[in-house]
Structure formats: C-alpha cells, structure tokens
Amino acid sequence: ELGSGDSFTWAELKLSRVHFTHLNDKSRAGDFSLRVADPQLFSQPAKVPVQAVSMQPPRVVTLAPLTLDSPRLLATITKSVLHIEDLDNPADVFIMVLEPPRHGRLTRLHGDRGLSRFKLEELSQEQIQYVHDVSEGTEDSLVLQVNDGHSYQNVLLQIHITHKSQDSPHLVT
C-alpha cells in the first residue's frame, strides 16, 4: 500500500505490480498526484483523476406477485415481494416506472403523488406502495427499470387483487 511520499519504479509499473484499489466506503470520484523522477531531475506533480465505475449490475434477489385484498386500497412493496441488491454502489441505483399500472399507481408510503422514479434505498426500506383505484380488475402489472448508471434491468411486477364482499364477516379486535 502506497501513501504520500512513497514511490514505485518504472519496472514495477511495466510488470503490473502497481494497482489502484477503490474502497467501497470512499468517494467514487477523486484524484491523486504523481511525480516522475530520476536520480537528477523530477517533474511537477500531475493530478490523476479517478472515477470508480460499477462493475456489477443491480441484482433482483426476490420477485413475487404483490397481493392486494380489496376493499383495502393499498399494499406496501416489501422485500418478500421485490428485493434488489447492488453490491458496489447502491446509492446510485434508481428505479424508473417504464410502464405504469393500469388500475392504480405507485406512491411513497406517506404520500399521494404517483411516482415515476425512486431510489433503491426507498424500496429497501419498504417506503413504496401500490395504491389501487378501486376498479373491478383482478390483475394489474407494471414494468420497472433498475438502473445504476452503467447497466439496467427491466422487472415485471405483477399485482393480484382479490375482491372481498363488503358483507363478508371480518374479525374486529
């Protein structure tokens, strides 16, 4: 591991013995300075910009239908329904609604406005919900695109709506 003031030789560089390793807990953009020297002369320091690029695409770990029991009009998208991981840069992952549901919309848990995109963090914290429009349909679906800025994956989320009669018995506690 090299630090400020450390050196390496041209031969070590040519033999691929010098590597730059990005640590996940560090900023993905930055720079470092290099200076070339021989026994008599040395150059001015030159800044080398660094931009860490995602090497692993986001991965869908769990994808199951979202079940909604009507007359209840909403259901939270939990990890048991849709769980997505991104091991190298989860903060950069956005999920876009490519094809919205026909019988409802996605909203944040404590919001009413329909969403066209949201962060992976919001999905992981189970802050996204499907709100049904009370139509008689029993099936709905939407297409989401998971994107980390370098790769993407489309996901079809199916929604099953079961209509229960208002007159049916229900448990009151």
TrEMBL record:
<dbReference type="InterPro" id="IPR039005">
    <property type="entry name" value="CSPG_rpt"/>
</dbReference>
<dbReference type="GO" id="GO:0009653">
    <property type="term" value="P:anatomical structure morphogenesis"/>
</dbReference>
<protein>
    <submittedName>
        <fullName>Fraser syndrome 1</fullName>
    </submittedName>
</protein>
<keyword id="KW-0732">Signal</keyword>
<keyword id="KW-0677">Repeat</keyword>
<keyword id="KW-0325">Glycoprotein</keyword>
<feature type="repeat" description="CSPG">
    <location>
        <begin position="57"/>
        <end position="147"/>
    </location>
</feature>
<dbReference type="Pfam" id="PF16184">
    <property type="entry name" value="Cadherin_3"/>
</dbReference>
<dbReference type="InterPro" id="IPR051561">
    <property type="entry name" value="FRAS1_ECM"/>
</dbReference>
